[in-house]
Amino acid sequence: MFQTTLKKEWLDTKRQGQALWLGGIAVLLLLLACLTGFKSHQSYQQAVTEVSQSEQLRWLNQGEKGPHSAAHYGIYVVKPTTPLAALDAGLQAYQGNVLRLEAHIRNDSMFRSAQDNLPMSRFGSLSPAFVLQVLLPLLIILIGYPLLAREREQGTLKQLLASGASPAKLFIAKCALLFVISCLFLLPVALFLLYSQVTSAEPHTLRSGLFLLFYLVYLLLWSLLTTTLSSLLPTARRALVALLTIWAFTTLLLPKLAMNIATTIHPQGSGQAFQAKLESEVYTEARVEAIAKFKQQTLTQYGVSNVEDLPFDYAGAQLQFGEQYADKIFDRLFSARLAQLEAQSQSYQLAGMLTPFIAIQTLSMATAASDFAHQQAFENAAEQHRRMMQEVLNFNQRDHGHKAGGHYTAGEELWQQIPKFAFQYPNFIRYLPHYVISLFSLSFWLIALVLLSFFAIKKLRLEEQR
Amino acid sequence: MTTPVIQINNLQKRFGEYQALQGLNLSVHQGEILALLGPNGAGKTTTINCLLGFLQPDAGEITIAGINPQHDVVTARQQLAYIPEQVALYPRLSGLENLAYFSKMASIEKTDEAFRTLLSEVKLPSHAVDKPVATYSKGMRQKVGIAIALAKQAKALILDEPTSGLDPSASHEFSQLIQSLAKQGVAILMATHDLYRAQEDAHRVAIINQGQLVDTLVYEQLQEVQLESVYLKHIKVGV
User: Fold this and answer.
1) What residues in B contact A156, CB-CB < 8 Å?
2) Of A256, A220, A235, A184, which is closest to residue A466 (Cα–Cα)?
């Protein structure tokens, strides 16, 4: 029945011409978006490689200087991307991809105002994700709204059913046809993923597979919804109006509303305020007292009354103590901030129960490693690298500073002890707990629409003249 | 007497306050043409929709070739063919493509040649077979409808105002096709306002009014009476 329906719809569509033009434009848009995304990803990857290499060279060739001067000299690390980021750049443009690692301070690039505006800011850009999440559902609607409703208006639906066509098979054939057509638009994306699997040094097979799977489910949801409403509503016009209303609500209005609610329930201060808070909490009287206590403990431990009498350079030891003291405060404040952002993200994901758009948006960015959780993983890894770097430099100062009479300098031999920052995203499975709500939401929508389809088929069995 | 192909017993259907069918009893046997007459709102279309399984009766029982559409609507529909007043076809597809599509959707597989033969049997002009149905006259569309019925070798044929709007020549041609189907053993139920066609073609005539069967005339009676007088007498009584 599917083949028969496919042949008939193809003949009908070909002779009508309108849908072919529509499909052609959509494919063109998607190809354009893929190409733009690919170019942008390529240039970004090139920049990552170049910056990493030049930074490493800059670090190694910084010349002779004190280890603490080198700690302030610092290095820049760049967040790598996956090839999937070419399809869904997610928050990439809003979170910053470069971090400066230096002494005394944990820099961050995530608390930016653009991050809070994310969902709607993306609307203006023609990314493959935008085409897949927003425009493709619209295309499914425009192709699919008359599938059963127009047949009802023409009387052919009654004629078909009266001739003994199974309502369930007819419904499934129409829905499958719509789904297969929508999958054709996913073909450029599948080809791109295949290409990136073959050419990439780090293939992301699981991520690519899940990326495609989530979009297949998303397209199936829209195909089911479109066929169901086309089946339930008496005229094609009413089916179109209903579907367009749902599309506008679910892809444009509700996500914006959900983000506003999430940021209202879990408000965030500005990035500047957070940085000011970090400094005000680190550089306090308590710190001065803690350092004084550390000094006293050290002198007591070694049975001396002056730091000059210690068998090592006290300045290096104090610098390391200061780092560890600040790290505890950084951990506390960043954890609190992270918990707040995570709560915001969970609230937003919860709104996925109202619209599958939020679920696919979340899961798409997640598999592309361009969302908040992956940014967090990168920043955490960078912070660990910074702490390791400070420890190596401070311990070197501690162990060798006193031998040079206060003018100790180190060279490339020490700089080489700091390994190049190399970050790889952990396996996607480890990230799954972040997306439980979105996974549940997508499954919920699938089950709900399958049940609604059963209802539509039941009504189709009793199709009467309307 | 053979077992009726179409059997309707005590059929009742209500739409809100309006009782559309009030215990209707009808039967159509193999090879028989039964004309169902009645004024607008008498219950003809409701009866047909119940037969096609598009409406659930409130009471009573229907069987088509022994199958109750309330229990197994798809199998029941596979036993019959339905030709409405306006045969609904896909305007951009040709007569041949329409016939092939409707047949295949009803799980009937035939070659293109076989479908062409069927269209030729119903006397669809050969030059029209591959042309879009949008260019067809009503009579030509009716012929495609008959071809669909022939293709599925239906045991029963249900016609709803089949000759309405047809010119006398097309109406006569249609009548011949119906007679030919009856001769092949198809049980035909024809709801119509066309008293002339009913008297000419039917083996029996059933007159219904206000959802009830008010009279039945067998073939012999039809030869002797003036159907219009009988019909008007019953309708006036009903009013």
Assistant:
1) 88-90
2) A235
